[in-house]
Amino acid sequence: MTSAIRAGRQDEIEQIMELITRCVQVMQNSGSDQWDESYPNREVIKEDLEHGTLYVCEVEGAIAGIIVLDENQAEEYSAIHWVQNQGPHLSMHRLAVHPEVQGKGIARRLIAFAEDHALRSGYTSIRLDTYAKNASALKLYNSLEYDLRGEVNFPGRIASFPVFEKVFV
Questions:
Q1: Alpha helix (H) residue ranges in the chain
Q2: 165 near 83, Cβ under 8 Å?
Q3: In this predicted structure, what is the pLDDT of residue 37?
């Protein structure tokens, strides 16, 4: 399986939104309300693309997964006890893999790309959250040595969001 990770392009927004729509369907069918029709929406993805922070994993010419890497942290993160307080910190958002290719290591490749990007760019840690009902993401982050630092709540979501950190220095 030939794959490459690169910055997403504006002309790929339809493909990216289709991937998100398929992921939302799978999440909702499994009882998770992590994502829905309102998030992540076209405006959010358009901004990610405009800022150059959305990366795609392309497999055999098709977008198989996405990840957003930036320094934006939810204000709820201020209540978290972080181990690494000296910045800068890279935040990981909107990691998604097309349901047809889930389980093939694409999420791991995207996270490895994020870690390499963080190290090359001088970040001291990566911070992220995921949904408490997203068992596969929780298992993945634990297996990749991301440390649980607490949890936050976001409006309109039933479950909490465990918050993770991986420190590099």
A1: 13-29, 42-51, 106-120, 135-143
A2: yes
A3: 79
- Mention the CATH class of domain 3-167: alpha beta
Does pTM surpass 0.85? yes
Give, in order, the Cα–Cα distances in Å from 113 to each of 5, 27, 97, 126, 155: 8, 24, 14, 12, 30
- Domain spans in the chain, listed from the N-terminal domain onward: 3-167
122-161: burial string, b at 16+ Cβ within 10 Å, e else: ebbbbbbbbbbbbeebbebbeeeebeebbebeeeebeeeb
How does strand 125-129 pair with strand 3-7? unpaired
**119-140 pLDDT per residue, tens:** 999 999 999 999 998 888 999 9
